[in-house]
Amino acid sequence: MPTQLKERAIAVIVNNRPDVLARIAGTFSARGFNIESISANITRNPAVTKIIITTLTTPDTIAKVIKQLNRLVDVLEAKRLRRPQAVRREMLIARVTRTDERQAAIEKLVETHGGKVVNEEADAIILEFTGDKEELEAILSRLEAVGMEDFARTGVIALERRKS
Q1: What is the pTM of this model?
Q2: Structural domains counted in the chain
Q3: Model confidence over 20-50: pLDDT tens digits?
């Protein structure tokens, strides 16, 4: 029975130089993989960037991709982030049309899902939520029901838990 494709996460620590991200993306496209999400930012050392990438693949293939990434110039380390050893989070911001009829539902949604109001206007409100992918998918469904106009979502960010 063939292994199913699953979303897998990789942390790539790189020298903060131009074209590094393009070479990393090229490693995925050369193998015919789509990058599902990508998040990159400098570390405490501004010369080093941490990139978190998620893609749909098999365990064997992700191991090969990591091996290729580790061969790239400017890649200091590439490794798989496995659940439950890694905590994964995403952020979602959404603009919702405000009406008197929807106000109670919006407030309940924010309270129930640990959301935050980040901007209020007379006829719209911008909300922020964080969670794992499944939580945000559920929140998006509920936001649609209360009049979501638009949304933006970050890529996955992740940290490994300390080893005991």
Answers
A1: 0.85
A2: 2
A3: 999 999 998 888 888 999 999 999 999 999 9
